[in-house]
Amino acid sequence: MKENSLQTREDASPYPFSYHCIYFSTSVHPDKCKSPTPATFLPYLFYHTFSCTRTSSLWMVRHKGIPSSTVGRNARAPVDGATDRFGFFVTAEEKRMDDECLRVYAEKKSVQNMWSKALTRWDNCPHDRRKELCRLGIPQSQRQTIWPLLLMTYGWKDENCEDYQLLMAQQPQDKSIFDVIERDLGRTFPTHRMFFKANGEGQKKLRRILRTYVNHNPDIGYVQGMGFIAATLLLQIGDEESTFRALVSVMENPKYNLAKLYAPGFPCMFARLYQLQKLLERHYAALFNKLVTYKIELSLFASNWYLTLFSYHLNFRLLSRIWDMFLCEGWKIIHRVAVALLLLHRDAIDGVRDESQLIMALQSAHEGKDEAEILKKALSIKVKTARLLRWEKEFNLLRSNR
């Protein structure tokens, strides 16, 4: 824990972004990878994201006029206090558009009925049927029940988790890790009614969940990005202890294994980026060639997608649809969405003429796209499990030989 606790400390001073530093320390090519730690990598990654968004529309992503539930850490709630269906503060105009979106994308009664039927025979419901239903989308009213079921289904049970109250009462080996959590609380969905108030009930719940996970898994502790994962689960599940158990599952169940994503050196994250690189080579060769030509690493724009499972960038409605599939199928949907965002942005990407233009285009790839179009494109992209496993083994071999 001693080594890891140092790695989780966030730099106090706001460093200006240095592309060459990111390029050097986060190279996705395993033969060059310098195995960055959270202390060296995440402050640059998150500071760059935040500083970029101050001068662009990344603070409030728009999907064809549909208000976004993704917010930046400097965002503030509107005076009138109106919220969208998920509890994020919106303006009166955004509220009108959200209501219109609910009308256009109304949940089908037939889908609700199919889910209700599946729940009555959950243990005997085949995986292919669950996958089919998750791709149709879980009704919002049922995610509170279905997400925990998905998380506890695939070879992982509650006995992997100690008593929540006992864990919460423990003192960490290094109390400074709690300071890192404290600094991130106000940055996590700050325009949601649950988290908007400093030290309000929502922030208290999130604090307890994250601190308890530190005690549960001191080898991982806490790393920036985990707060968005825990907060997304809390917003959908509601109950604090159930959310903690869901967090443990998504971190440690081999199907998801987010703990390895945050492990020192980020080996799993770089493996995911290597897989994304291979997918781009197959599905978007023009972009792959541009990245090679300009020596731009995927980590420059895609690391946040993977570290937060898109929860920092995409609106909560779309995010929930993606997570429905992630919790059922695992990592393939994350890869599919990443490739889909880039393919749907190809007009902007293909038209760039220099390195700086390409970087700006890549960092805005998630903006201004229709949710249905993103999901349709993502599900049309073929991603074979065997290929992903082969590429991961290839990455690990190259990394071990570097």
Give a brief description.
This is Putative GTPase activating protein. This protein has 402 residues and is mostly helical.
Task: Explain what the structure shows.
The chain starts with a helix and ends with a helix. It is globular. The protein has a domain at 2-59 and 262-401: Orthogonal Bundle (Cyclin A, domain 1), CATH 1.10.472. It has helices at 2-7, 19-25, 38-53, 92-104, 109-120, 127-136, 140-153, 164-169, 176-185, 201-216, 226-237, 240-252, 258-261, 267-283, 285-294, 299-307, 316-329, 332-344, 346-350, 355-363, 371-380, 385-401. The protein is an all-alpha fold and 402 residues long.
Mean model confidence by pLDDT: 80
E-strand count: 0
What characteristic shape results from the CA principal axes?
Answer: globular
Estimate the helix proportion, in percent: 55-70%
Task: Please report the distance between the alpha carbons of the first and last residues.
Answer: 27 Å
Specify the structural class: mainly alpha
Query: Mind summarizing the main beta sheet?
Result: none
The arrangement of helices and strands along the chain is HHHHHHHHHHHHHHHHHHHHHH
Please work out how many helical segments DSSP would assign: 22
Low-pLDDT stretches are: 1-75
Strand content: under 5%
- The whole-angstrom Rg is 20 Å
The name CATH uses for the topology of the domain at 2-59 and 262-401 is Cyclin A, domain 1
